[in-house]
Design goal:
Radius of gyration: 13 Å
Distance between the termini: 15 Å
Helix content: under 10%
Number of helices: 1
Order of helices and strands: EEEEEHEEE
Number of strands: 8
Structural class: mainly beta
Largest sheet: 3 strands, antiparallel
Strand order of the largest sheet: 2-1-3
Strand content: 25-35%
């Protein structure tokens, strides 16, 4: 995974998934298996959640709107913004 430094610089560096902590902003590589649950902040992502749900159809995830929504992981709407650990980003 790649992490953007704390000063907001665009410099990126690779870290082990063991070193990720809540609040880290990461760039998700294409065709990667996600090491932890993530909230999509920008863009969109197609994920294969078949290992979690058994559903063989890929799912499109969308970025959360920072102006319109407060992220609540327990809410039903959180599912469209959450990339779950163990799923594959395609």
């Amino acid at each position: 995974m790649k992490r953007i430094d704390n000063e907001g610089n665009t410099d990126q560096f690779t870290v082990s998934s063991d070193d990720l902590v809540p609040g880290d902003i990461v760039i998700v590589p294409d065709y990667s298996i996600l090491p932890c649950d993530l909230v999509l902040l920008t863009g969109s992502c197609i994920v294969n959640e078949s290992m979690l749900t058994g559903e063989s159809v890929p799912v499109i995830k969308y970025a959360i709107s920072p102006i319109k929504e407060i992220f609540d992981p327990q809410s039903e709407s959180a599912k469209k913004h959450t990339l779950y650990s163990g799923t594959k980003c395609i």
